[in-house]
Amino acid sequence: MTATPVLDVVGLVQHFAINRSVTIRAVDGIDFSVDAGEVFGIVGETGSGKSTVAKSILGVNALTGGEIYFKGNLISAKHLPKEVKDDVHRNMQIIFQDSAAALNPHMTVEEIVAEPLLVNRVYAAKEEREERVLACLAQVGLSAAYRHKYPGELSGGMRQRVAIARSIAIRPDLIIADEPIASLDISIQAQIVTLFQHLQKTEGFSFIFIAHDLSMVRFLSTRIAVMLKGKIVELAPTDELFRHPLHPYTASLISSAPVPDPDLERSRTRLAYDTSLFTGDGVLTEVADGHFLLM
Amino acid sequence: MAEILEINNLSLHFDTPEGEVCAVRGVDLCVKQGEILAIVGESGCGKTVLCQSVMKLLPKNARIASGTITVDGTEITGCSEKEMRSLRGNLFSMIFQDPMTTLNPTIPIGKQIAEAVRKHSNAGKDAAKARALELLELIGIEDPVVRYDLQPHFFSGGMRQRCVLAIALASNPKILFADEPTTALDVTVQAKILDLLLELRDKLGLTIVFVSHDLGVVARIADRVAIMYAGKIVEIGRVDEIFYDPRHPYTWGLMQSLPSLAREGEPLHCIPGMPPVMLNPPEGDVFAYRNLYALQIDYEEMPPFFAVSPTHAAATWLLDPRAPRIPSPVSLRRKEGEPQ
Ligand SMILES: Nc1ncnc2c1ncn2[C@@H]1O[C@H](COP(=O)(O)OP(=O)(O)OP(=O)(O)O)[C@@H](O)[C@H]1O
Ligand SMILES: Nc1ncnc2c1ncn2[C@@H]1O[C@H](COP(=O)(O)OP(=O)(O)OP(=O)(O)O)[C@@H](O)[C@H]1O
Ligand SMILES: [Mg+2]
Ligand SMILES: [Mg+2]
Question: How far is the CA of B10 from the centre of ligand 1 (A)?
Fold first, then answer.
């Protein structure tokens, strides 16, 4: 692909020094890029560094090493030109695992969703802004009846949808969704995933979709990266990854994903992979077209 | 096997400024010793509140409007807080949905587990620490010795969830209420935790009430499944009966929302609309307004339970002999062979 990717992550390293003798190597040198209009899935073990990757992209932590480019511009440096900073601010949005909890409790649903539009002066007219807010709420399945409610009056699932409405309001280029649906129930997960799919098709958003639920990631993503202990161990187009998982950890993930079929679920053999044997050595190497393996 | 938990006609209301919210409406439920019962249903249908009412850990504005709860032969709706405290220690414990409500952010994880161990036994300091390390190991935390002294924010979401499980297990409970205990976990760890729960059941006869919206997990772990909607159980049966022969249109809707049951290239099915706020429950079946198969009578009269088998029942008028026969739209068939 020759077009500039929306996001390019090069050699990202993120370590956390706990004390003099202990350093947590949360992310330990990973590379990937996200193309325009793509849904890039990240799956992996608990604690493998997925959320840290999202936070590093957002600039929450100063990187230990590596670079991050957004639409070709370096965004991981300390001092960024104002246009780049504004562009990142506006065109990269994140939905966190616990976004729902992070909503300002003193703002109404409408104010919360409108805020990024106001801050970035997207609409001059109040009516236009209101219309956009209501359209976004409708897209996440919240009727106008909720516009004057406060987060405390909503269930967890509803709050998560407000967070999603807020992040799409501004029509960003890239949405980083860190387990956006884990706290939602299946029927609403289906609604949200359908919404993501729709947005990606109609508005051309790119997504980084971090999730545990392999079936959802599979359903939504174009390509998937599998993380283990701060490394990407395998990266491939979705179908390819599920048909020909090459890394034993990927194979164990796929075989561990629960399927909603009691007989199958109980008779299936799970491939175990002892992650303590994983050293993290090797480089991500292209072994087939677009299929990369740490080796 | 003996019934260890018996809930009869339980109704629970919340007093709110807008009026009375009926969060649990006339629930009957029995759980046998050593059984794993899964409770499944959309957000807000009352799963957590149902567990909390057995634990008697309800918000202040909650009120049990009717019903009895019998745990291991003791009727507990009349128990004082003091009696409940000892029951909670020795009889049951709960894993809460949000790990951070259980964990104290300022205290090292290991210490919190050790405290839980000491609260429920007469273990000394060193013994409690040893047991806490054992529990950390058991739930699969690497480097337990290093991790023992770290505060919760040094842990990833899934690790915190596992620590909460360790705290719940510290008291050696007979009944474990697990409120979505594996939602924050990746599938390999999830599989390990589920295996661990199954092992605890097999070895210690632990009874588990497992709240989840992940039907894959439920298929794996549950002996029986109760489907809840708007404060009521609408279908209950053995796990195979619920998955291979679901009868309630709401259960159909849940199954159809699953990506793994979706046909290639087709959009996911969504149940239209949203669960109702239970302020003024309408006449008839509250699900009728979202039910593609609703009959006229659904809007008028609440459906009773119709038995499908001695172990399987569903509250839908579609099971009335006078109703039109509607084939289940869910494609899951028993022993269909591996879906790739
Ligand atoms: N601010 C921090 N300080 C110290 N350690 C941290 C910090 N943030 C994350 N870590 C550590 O980095 C590792 C990766 O954590 P991260 O939250 O990225 O995992 P994750 O892949 O998102 O896991 P999960 O699936 O459980 O959410 C963990 O070992 C965690 O304890
Ligand atoms: N303190 C409270 N005051 C008033 N209503 C409440 C209170 N706590 C819960 N409710 C209501 O009781 C109902 C049941 O809530 P509950 O938390 O049991 O749902 P749930 O099935 O566990 O949902 P989820 O899957 O989102 O956890 C909801 O409609 C909720 O709004
Ligand atoms: Mg995370
Ligand atoms: Mg709940």
Answer: 42
Counting from 1 in the atom list of ligand 2, the atom nearest the Cα of B275 is 29
B146, B213, B239: residue with CB nearest A186: B213
Is residue B191 less than 8 Å (CB to CB) from chain A?
yes
Which of A135-144, A228-237, B39-48 shows the highest mean pLDDT?
Answer: A228-237
The shortest CB-CB distance from A215 to any of B44, B142, B260 is to B260
Question: Which residues have any ligand 1 atom within 6 Å of their CB?
Answer: A 16, 24, 26, 44, 46-52; B 154-158, 186
Q: Is the ipTM of this complex over 0.90?
A: no
From the list A97, A187, A266, the residue facing B220 with the nearest CB is A266
Beta strands in chain A (DSSP E): 7-17, 23-34, 39-44, 65-70, 73-74, 92-95, 174-178, 206-210, 223-228, 231-237, 284-288, 291-294
Tokens of B89: 């220690």
Sequence-distant (≥ 6) Cβ neighbours of residue A274 within 8 angstroms:
none
Chain A residue nearest residue B224, CA to CA? A262
Extract the tokens encoding B175: 């009944």
State how far the Cα of B239 lies from the Cα of B218, in Å rounded to an integer.
8
Q: How far apart are the first and last CA of chain B?
A: 38
Domains of chain A: 7-294 (3.40.50.300)
If one residue of B20, B48, B101 were mutated to test the ligand 2 pocket, choosing by the most ligand atoms within 8 A of its CB, it would be B48
Rounded-to-integer distance, Cα B89 and Cα B93, Å: 7
Share of chain B above pLDDT 90, in %: 46
Q: Are A56 and A12 spatial neighbours (Cβ–Cβ below 8 Å)?
A: yes
Owner of token pair 């992940």: B214
The DSSP bridge pattern shows strands B312-314 and B306-309 to be antiparallel
Cα A61 from Cα B323, distance rounded (Å): 62
Which ligand is nearest to the Cα of residue A96, counting in written order?
A: 3
Chain A: closest CA distance from residue B183 (Å):
6
Phi, psi of B26 (to 5 degrees): 60, 55
How many A from CA of B50 to the centre of ligand 2? 10
Question: B139 CA distance to ligand 1 centroid (A)?
Answer: 17
B69: left (phi over 0), alpha (psi -120 to 50) or beta: beta
Amino acid, res. B154: F
Please state which of the ranges A55-69, B97-111, B165-179 shows the lowest mean pLDDT. Answer: B97-111
Q: Any idea which residue has 């359908």 for tokens?
A: A194
The band of B234, judged by pLDDT with boundaries at 50, 70 and 90, is very high
Under a CB-based contact definition with an 8 Å cutoff, are residues B211 and B180 in contact? Answer: yes
| DSSP-assigned beta bridge partners for residue B236 | B226, B313
Identify the helix (H) or strand (E) that includes residue B217: helix B215-221
Q: What is the mean pLDDT of residues A78-95?
A: 91
Domains of chain B, each with CATH number or no CATH = 1-91+226-332 (3.40.50.300)
Given a contact cutoff of 8 angstroms between Cβ atoms, the answer to whether A105 and A152 are in contact is yes
pTM, rounded to two decimals: 0.84
Residue given tokens 């359209």 in the structure block: A135
Mean pLDDT, chain A, whole residue set: 89
Examine the pLDDT at B337 and tell me if it is beyond 50. no
User: Judging by DSSP bridges, how do beta strands B175-179 and B92-95 pair with one another?
Assistant: parallel
pLDDT single digits (tens) B149-193: 999 888 877 788 888 888 988 888 899 999 988 776 778 878 888
The Cα B227–Cα B236 span in angstroms is 6
- The Cα–Cα gap between B85 and B77 comes to 13
